[in-house]
Structures are given as structure tokens and as C-alpha cells.
Give the backbone structure.
Amino acid sequence: MADITAPLQGTVRVKASPDETALRALHILGFLFLALALALPLSSLLLRAFQDQQGDFVGLRNFAIYVTTPSLIQSAWNSIWTAALTTLVVVPLAFAYAYGLTRSNMPGKWFFRAVMFLPIFAPSLLPALSLIYLFGNQGMLRWIMDGGSIYGPWGIIGAQIFYCFPAATIILAVALSTADGRLYEAAEALKASRFRIFLTVTLPGAVYGLVSAAVVVFTLVVTDFGIPKVIGGQFNVLATDVYKQVVGRQDLNMGAVVGMVLLVPAILAFLLDRWALTKKSATLSGRAVPYRPKPRAARDHPAFLLCLTIALTLIGIVGVAVWGSLIRFWPYNLALTLDNYDFSRFDTAGWQAVWLSIKFSLMTAVLGTALVFIIAYSLERGPRSGFLAGPLRFLATIPLAVPGLVLGLAYIIFFNAPGNPLGIIYGTLAILVLNSMVHFYTVCHLTAVTAIRQLDPEFEAVSASLHVPVWRTFSRVTIPICLPAILEIAVYLFVSAMTTVSAVIFLYGPDTKPASVSVVHMDEAGQASAAAAMACVILAISLSAKLLQLFMNGVLGRFTSAWRR
Amino acid sequence: MPMGVALDAGVNAGVGADPGTGQGYLAIRDVGKQFGSFVALDRVSLDITSGEFVSFLGPSGCGKTTLLRAIAGLDPPTVGRIIQAGRDITALPPSERDFGIVFQSYALFPNLTVAENIGYGLRGTAWPKARRQQRVTELLELIGLLDQIAKYPAQLSGGQQQRVALARALASEPGLLLLDEPLSALDAIVRLHLRQEIRALQQRLGVTTIMVTHDQEEALSVSDRIVVMSQGRIEQIGTPEEIYGAPATPFVASFVGRSAHFSAKIHTPAGQITSHGLVLPAMAAAPLLYGEEVEAFIRPEDVELFPLSAQSAGSFEARITGLEFLGPVCRVSLEANGLRFEADIAPSEAAAFDTSPGARLLARFRPERLMVFRSNG
């Protein structure tokens, strides 16, 4: 029997339960993963920017060369102004579209909602190829250009508008949908005009959404590689510079310098977005009543027309790519053919690239989802005192700020370094999978964290009191409840891996060329129709994955309707 | 009943002198918890007897939940010792302790049926399938939800869900039942009903129970003993009658029940205090020295009212400032020389007075009920 009168011995040291030990081990695992696959490669990139070809430390000399090379400075400026102009066009368009979706009573909202996601499922090269079909040297609508060329800033901006539209619209639709109907009723009761209500209620509620959307679009444009590669022509931007330095000139040091320049807007955007995130919390109190728009023709008809125009343009751009891929010889012989889909005629990898992409995307989806979800769970429900929890949380948010090209470059420098035992994965499927898991980590992590936070925080405490180990509750309760979020993460990873170019263009090996890289190569070789065909194949596979997810959600919903509210 | 034992078990009383025999079921010694520089629990000691129903009562942030979570091992204390049934559990993780717990949120697993929830902890060789089913049925009968066995939590009402959570916590017959604000999420009528049900169940099973609550009425109605806490310390431990009738500190006097508070001085002859120019007989003031500063509290039901014409020792003239009809009683707000207080009178009695605002009458604080505490004692 324990003696209560025995003297106390200092601070209580709690015996760790097997659950706690297991969750702590997961912290270590997650930390090691992100340290090895993110922090170390980025550090070697950083180091490389201060070295010469021989690996000697040269201080800021590389940066001095950079700022004194007019062509490089010109590219940076090109990146900035095309991104700024794209932002200025996309954000108002996306705002109008999102406004129509959330604040009007127009018909066919489900259709507009579905269409706005279309660009997500295609590689960014697809709109660029479409614009070339329409306005290029052999374009059907070339006369619109009036002697100007689509190859250059206008082509880049046009394609970027298509490519960035969904991201901006999603952010703004979320910002506009969290409105308190009572504020509008109060404003109306106070006899405010519609314009005044828009200025004093609607805009303030959406202002952080607007900041966030602008920041995201700007970053997407600056860091995208596919579009300027295909339609940029002689117009250089930061992303194509990195590629040229690394692949063309084999100058990893200057590549690292340009990569770090590319990192600057991305990090600034990341910080600005996080600031906006902290500001917008609690715009909607628990007592708010959701805003329900009443029918009003003066708003609904223009909204419908505008959304229809935008939606048809999005479909049209995809349609042109699909059509172009089915045409024998654009624009002279418009007979339909499937010849362009016989990829082995254009590229030695042929359909092999498609199978490889599917394999690589599936592996990324399966391994990535498991890893992200388990690490997120250990962070959310593990020991709060864990000394690795803080650093791990921080590392998990970094990938969002790292452009794919920069991560890819960091991987070459780190994994290809002589003496790195991990170098064996260089040029294999493994490095593609690892790179993609890290590149898309943050969004998945945040999705997982959101899903886990919706569970009662006391599930683990109850389980412990019932002497049930944590892994059992994890598999019997947490996973079944979070299944929709897990599917969402898996499909996001799959689609991202299918469509990405920038992250993998430096990393594929002779036997591991993904379909998206194949598009770039076929376009470089002047096989625009085959490139479009391959882009369409990627689009079809990504869309199928999304449709499969929706179908499975439906099935799951039927099976779990009894316990889901 | 454990009541007798409970009565004399004070903060530091009753245990420790004779180890092994004087110890209750649960002994808490100098348990403290610090978050950085914030002291959530300040070396708290407490003994709980087997079969007792004890409530931790206090405002939010007083440390009651911290203490409960320390007992459960969910947030272990930084210092101190906790002994349950003769076993030192201070440093054990929750999974190695012996308790069942019910949370305010119920924490029922939404994807498992009522039966699966209740049987969640009944696993392993000790619980073959037939025995587990029998136990689940038995518990469902106990909480009167046998007909809901195949339903999911979302299909039950809040009160039913909380009963299922209770059955789950009791399933493997733990020695200690912990209830963390179990009724706070329920609406008022269900709450009244369920608290009596919990009490009846607890008495029937004889399980030692600790309930955390901020609702004093709840604590008063079901507990054998109440532990009133404030700012990480125990203010008083006692039966509901003691807590309400003889609060040990000004905090308890003001937190439990309703009372008017005023500063006063000890007056002479002994047994009187003075405040706002009034001299008030107060039995609690008898042992205190003349001139000492005190804090005084008086409950509305301990104030008597008379017509101005009546003669009553210790009464003083007061003016009515408001009247509130509460059903069984009328609460009269009064003021005398700037001293504000309230009196509860029966509505029939109220008819005998002129209760319009500004009306004057005589008021008297019952000397044996006037609560007096040394200032900053």
C-alpha cells in the first residue's frame, strides 16, 4: 500500500504510456521525413548559391553577377509585370463569378460550380497550347492579333488567366459564402442603398479573401513553368531562366541564385496570406444566420450572363485543345484522326509516359495520404509537450511557399551530390514520388488537420480510460469518420502529381519520364498536336479520378447516412 | 452512509497520522500544476471516501477541471501525490489507472452504435462475446435505453446520449467515476431530471464519484460533499448544508447562493457590527475584537421585513427601491443609509406591505445568519 505520508520527491515525472511513445515516435518519423526531403535539400540549394562551380565559397559573387546581367534582371521584371497584370484581370473576374455563385439567385449554379474546377485537372500547358491553336502562327483567329504575336507576354497572360481562375474563385467563393444574413437585414432596415450595402457589408467581409486571392494568383504566375515554356517564345521569365541555367547551361550555381530570387515573391506571398488568415478569423459568429439571396432580376440576369460567358470560355479553351488533338494537320486539313494519340510516333517514351504518370501519381497518392494523415494525427492528438511538435508543424507549412522548380533544383543539388548515400534514388521513380509528396504536403496537411479537429477532442481520453490503445481508436473511429477528407487528400495528390511539370522536369530519369514532361518535349519538338493530345489524356485521367472520388463519396454517404448528421 | 465520515474530513484533517488505515479511497496531497508562470492548481489536498459523491464547484478557471484531469492522468500535476485505493497513481498514464469518465461533449463515437459504444472497452480475454453482450444489455437496462441498442448517437437526444456515455464509463466497473460538467450541454429540464438519475445510479452502484460543475444548484442537490475552488485553491470542503449555511470564506459566501455584500467594523458590545451608520447584531462577530474591519454577507431569505409601526430588536428603517416577482417568492430590493440589500418574502406577505418604490419599512438581518469574515484575513 502506498504511503501518503512519505515525503514528496520534487516534480512529478509521468510514466509514458505505450500510446504516447507511439505518437512521439511518429513525431520523430515526420520530422526526419521533412528534414531529409525538404529542409536539407533547401539548405543545400541555399549553400550552392554562395559557391562557385568548384564548390568554393564565393560570398555574394553569384548574386553580383546576377544583378549585373541585364537579361536576368529583365526576366525578373517580366515575371513581375505579367503576374501583376494577370492578377488585375483574374481577381475581378473571379470575384464576379464567385459573387454570382454565392450572392445571386441565377439558375444553373451547379453547372458553374463544376466548370470552374476544370482548369485544375489539366496541366498548365494545355491553355497555352489552345491559345497557340487559336492565335499562333497558324491560328484560326490570328487576324485578331493584328500583326502582334501570341508568343510572349500576351500569350502568357492569357493562359495564366485560365490556369489561375479556379484558385482565385474558390478562395473568393469561400470568403463570400460566410456572410451573416442578419447584417444585410439590419442594413436594409436602416434603409441603406444597395451600393452602400455592397461597400459597407459585402466588401469588408471579403477583403481578406481578395488579398488572399491576389497573393495566390501572383505567386502561381511567377512560379509557373509550363505556360512560359510553351508560349513564352523569346520572352524570358524567372521560371524559364532557372530551367535554362540548369538544363541549358548546366550552371547549378546560377540556377540556385535564380531559384532563390524565385523564392522571394513566394515567401512574401506566403507571409502575406498567413497574415490575412489571422485577420479573417471570427468574421462569422456562432449566432450568424447564413445569407440567402432573394431573386432579383437586375442582379441575377447579368450575373448569369457573365458566369455563362466565363464558363463557356473555360470549356472553349479545353475544347480547342481536345479538337486540335483530333485534327490531322492544323489548320490546313481539319479531318478528324486519332493519329496524334499514337504517341510512340512522336516521343520514344510513347504511351509508356502515361502509364508511368499513373503509377507515379498513384504511389504519391497512397503513400502521401497515409504519411500526411498519420503525421497530422500525431500532431493534433499526440503529446503536446513533444519537443519536435513545434518544428514539425512549422516544416509542414513550408512546402506551400516553395515553387516546384526550386524544390526540383534543390533535389538535384542534394541527391546528386557526390557522397550522398541517398543518391541511389536519383533518376528513379522514388525521387519523383518523394518530391511530389513534399511539394504538395501543406495543402494535404491542412485538410487533414481540419478534418481531425472536427472530431471530439476527448475521444483519446475516453479510449485511454477504457484501456483501449490509441491505434485501435484511430482505425475504428478516426479513419472511418475522416474518410471523405482522406479521399479528398488522395485525389488532390493524384491530380497534382498527374499535372505537375515544374517539380519533376529536373528529376525524371531515362526510364521515368512522366506524361506532363512528355508534353513539354513534344511541344519543343514542334509536335503541337501530339502535345495537345497528351495534355488531353492527362486531363481525362485527372477528371476520372475526381469523378471516382465523387462516386465513392456518394456510396460512402449512403452507407454512413445513419450516423452522419 | 459515507456522510458521517465526510463531515469531519477537512482540508488537512483526518488522514495521514496513521498510514494505511486513516486513508480514504482517494487521497490527494499537495497537488499543484503550473503552466509557465500561471498557477492552475496551488498545492491542493483532499481525501475522498469510498462510495462518496463529491462535486468540485467554482467559476471557470478556478482549477476544478485541472484537478479532475490530474486525477484522471490526462494532464498530470507538476507536483504532489495522488493515491487511489492504496496505489500511487501520480505518475501513471490514464490507461493504467482505474476510472471511467464522462465529458460535457459526451465524446460518443458517432460511427459506432449505442451497443458498440458501451462495449468499446470490454475487450480481451476477460470479456468473451457472450459476457460482453450480457454486460451491455445490463447497462442499457440500467439507463433505460434497451430499445435504442442499435441506434447511432446522432439518432438520440442529448439526454439519451449522455446516459450512453455514462453507461460506457461504468461498463467495466471502474472504482472511480469522473464527470466533467456532464450536464452543461443539456437544456434546463433534461438537466434537472438527469442529475437526479445520475445520483440515484451512483447510490445504487456505490461507485465513488467526482463531478466538476460550475452550477451551484447542481452541486448542492446531488453531492455528499462539495469542494469549492477559486484561483487554484480549495476554499472550503463540506456538505451542501455546510457550504450554504456556514461558508468558510468570503468567496464561498458570495459564490454559493445569493447574498448582499458590505464592509463593516466590529462594534461594541461584542456580537455587533456597524456599517453605513447602522448597528447590526451578528453572532459570528462575537469572537472578533472591537474595531476590526470585516466583510459581511446577508442572504435575501435571512432578511425580515416589518411595517414601520412594529417594534423589533436590531431592526432599522429601509426604503424599497424595486420589486421582482419570482413565483414562489417576491424579491424586494432595499436601501438603508446607502447600504443596498435584498429580501425574499412570500407573495402573500408582500400584500401586507406597501411595496411601491420609495415606500419605507423596517428591516432586520437575522443575527445568527449574518455572515462575517475578517477583511483580508
Q: What stands out?
A: Residues 70-103 of chain A form the longest helix (34 residues). Chain A is about 70% helix and 0% strand.
